[in-house]
Amino acid sequence: QKEVEQNSGPLSVPEGAIASLNCTYSDRGSQSFFWYRQYSGKSPELIMFIYSNGDKEDGRFTAQLNKASQYVSLLIRDSQPSDSATYLCAVNVRSQGNLIFGKGTKLSVKP
Amino acid sequence: GAGVSQSPRYKVAKRGQDVALRCDPISGHVSLFWYQQALGQGPEFLTYFQNEAQLDKSGLPSDRFFAERPEGSVSTLKIQRTQQEDSAVYLCASSPTVNTEAFFGQGTRLTVV
Q1: Cβ neighbours for B53, distance < 8 A, ≥ 6 positions apart
Q2: H helices then E strands: how many in chain B?
Q3: Which residue of B has its CA nearest to A99?
Q4: pLDDT tens digit sequence for B34-81
Q5: What is the spatial distance between Cα A67 and Cα B3, in angstroms, rounded to a whole number?
């Protein structure tokens, strides 16, 4: 079982809707959780990180972490066509700081 | 300040050729990571440095891959006797301390022909 799992999508939502991206991880010792956005042909760009159970909001983005369920999600409110990209979930599985990535979920926001 | 800088941006190598990929991290960043990303996949971990110490190289796919960061700043990923399966984007990332967010460079797209 891969350590970080994401639905590859594509996830298609209409403009203005809420996009919900999900990620599960296998290592209960994971400490830090990150969401990256990657446009086609570009490098990953950090959107949010979360360390504690609960929600963390930043503008239109909300990260949610549930360590008991080993589940982290990203909500994008008022989705825009410019949000269309692949979203990568990354987890720090060891105290040394190595990040393990999921395969990413491709999001398409239709005008 | 400047972000993570990688060079070259593109590299075409003939099979069997050695290549060297450079990463210049954000100034002062302690941690440096190398990842390999195949088309349609997430980044796959290769190796990790904390300052000049290579703390984890478990992701290097073979002994043809070698990485160094001799002075705790610039890092070089070297691939010897390149094979077609080495074709990928090689991403470098740095972070200010352990367990914090990592920032990526533009990547080097390696094509082995």
Answers
A1: none
A2: 0, 11
A3: B45
A4: 999 999 899 999 999 999 999 999 999 999 999 999 999 999 999 999
A5: 32
Give the number of C-alpha atoms closer than 13 A to the C-alpha of residue B80, restricted to the C-beta side.
6
Nearest CA in chain A to B108: A43
What residues of A are in contact with residue B98 (Cβ under 8 Å)?
95-97
Nearest CA to A24 out of A79, A54, A83, A64 is that of A64
Helix (H, G, I), strand (E, B) or coil at A54: strand
Residue written as token pair 């210049």: B24
10-residue mean pLDDT series, chain A (111 residues): 84 97 92 94 94 95 96 97 97 76 95 94
Are B21 and B110 contacting, i.e. CB atoms less than 8 angstroms apart?
yes
8-state DSSP, A19: E
- How do B108-112 and B10-13 pair as beta strands? parallel
The residue written with tokens 């994971």 in the block is A30
